[in-house]
Design a protein that fits this description.
Blueprint lengths: L5 H10 L5 E6 L5 H10 L5 E5 L10 H15 L5 E6 L7 H14 L4 E8 H9 L7 E5 L5 H8 L3 H7 L12 H21 L8 H13 L7 H8 L5 H13 L3 E4 L6 H5 L4 E4 L2 H8 L3 H5 L2 H18 L1 H4 L2 E7 L2 E9 L2 E8 L8 H9 L3 E6 L5 H5 L9
Parallel strand pairs: 1-4, 1-5, 2-3, 3-4, 10-11
Antiparallel strand pairs: 6-7, 8-9, 9-10
Helix pairs in contact: 1-2, 7-13, 8-13, 9-11, 9-13
Length: about 400
């Protein structure tokens, strides 16, 4: 079975002396639980692995009970150390306070129970880790699958990856597009919105958020003002509500509203957002286009190619530490701008979508980027670029 690079990272941390809680964070269906199973099957340490997925969220004593069970099993085995794995821990009310209590008790009593927590994207991080567990955890980020991973694990070619994205569970269905779409909608999108978001965030208009997500995905690669988007959603609301919902979707690693690059933060954050999916499967499943329709239309395929590049850059942004923007000045635009240590890189994607664009030249005159890249026609081939680690682009 294919092992993502986070396998070595998690195994190495578990093998270290007990020090920090290990938190595995990432969107649905990217292999978090599989990763833990792979590590556990290759190690000799005793463990208890449980999931809070079907536990009553109000059962705040549940964490203490399973923790005590782990302690008892450790004592019965006369083990010097033990591992406790809790999946979907964020679905328990006040989970972070309960984890803090048990972790600190073990620390005080020199009980060497190591802990791995799993949760959905940065929602888990923001709802407890930065408050109750500050200083007690390390994060292992699991983004969406890259082209290199999907190619090595499943033999998928670049064009199919651009359209079908990188959800491993759906790859077997790509020869039956109707079945594949149902899988993405029913097993990825619906649980991500209805469970991961609505169970961890206060959302006063869940239907509005869902429609924002669906419409935003179909606009991936396009700039659209939130007030215009609000009109298309045909819902009574305000721009602030939409902006908050878009932030939540970004935290869930589903959909992002890229801000326009500028010399000051105020202009960045007040700009018209450019929609960008974190996985092109979300665009394809909701677009209404078949693979053949998209692939044979240069204009349409250009948006898919741009979205694939954007998703590639976004998925590595947290780990590498850069920020992703776009830039436009009237008819001149740059698809992506990476900002790192107060310096920037400009990236333009060309795949038949635009015939002429002076964006890179104008951007260089205005901002003096340290590097510029053309991806696609006349530049770095798409397959080569999507095989790169974005960290290698940095200066």
């Amino acid at each position: 079975m294919y092992k993502r690079h986070q396998y070595k990272e998690l195994r190495s941390r578990i093998e270290e002396p007990r020090n920090k809680i290990q938190v595995i964070s990432g969107p649905r269906q990217v292999g978090k639980s599989t990763l833990v199973k792979q590590v556990l099957s290759d190690m000799s340490i005793g463990f208890t692995a449980v999931s809070a997925d079907n536990t009553d969220p109000r059962d705040t004593g549940w964490i203490g009970e399973i923790w005590e069970t782990a302690r008892q099993r450790m004592r019965l085995a006369h083990a010097g150390e033990y591992l406790l794995v809790i999946d979907e821990v964020h679905k328990i009310d006040n989970w972070s306070e309960a984890v803090k209590k048990e972790w600190d008790a073990d620390t005080f009593n020199d009980v060497k129970i190591k802990v791995v927590l799993l949760g959905s994207s940065r929602l888990l991080l923001k709802n407890g880790l930065t408050e109750s567990l500050a200083g007690r955890y390390e994060l292992i980020r699991m983004p969406h699958w890259s082209y290199t991973e999907v190619k090595e694990a499943f033999g998928m070619d670049i064009d199919h990856y651009i359209f079908f994205g990188g959800f491993p569970g759906g790859i077997a269905f790509t020869n039956n597009e109707a079945r594949w779409r149902h899988y993405i909608k029913d097993s990825i999108i619906a649980p991500a919105i209805e469970h991961d978001i609505l169970m961890t965030k206060i959302v006063y208009k869940p239907e509005l958020m869902l429609r924002l997500f669906e419409l935003g995905c179909t606009y991936s690669g396009e700039e659209i003002a939130l007030n215009k988007l609000l009109g298309q959603l045909q819902d009574v609301g305000n721009v602030t509500t939409l902006a908050n919902y878009l932030t939540t979707l970004d935290e869930s690693r589903l959909l992002c509203g890229l801000q326009k690059y500028a010399n000051d933060n105020a202009r960045k954050y007040n700009s018209i957002p450019k929609m960008m999916v974190y996985n092109t499967a979300l665009l394809s499943a909701l677009s209404g286009y078949t693979y053949r329709q998209a692939f044979t239309s240069p204009k349409i395929w250009g948006r898919w190619a741009e979205s694939a590049v954007g998703a590639h850059l976004l998925n590595m942004a947290d780990e590498t530490g850069y920020r992703v923007y776009y830039w436009r000045n009237r008819d001149d635009e740059v698809d992506f701008v990476l900002e790192y240590n107060h310096k920037c890189i400009a990236i333009e994607v060309k795949s038949g979508r635009r015939t002429a664009n002076n964006g890179i030249r104008v951007f260089k005159e205005k901002f003096s980027p340290v590097q510029t890249f053309i991806v696609g026609t006349g530049g770095i081939p798409l397959e080569e670029f999507l095989s790169l680690d974005p960290a290698d682009l940095l200066f």
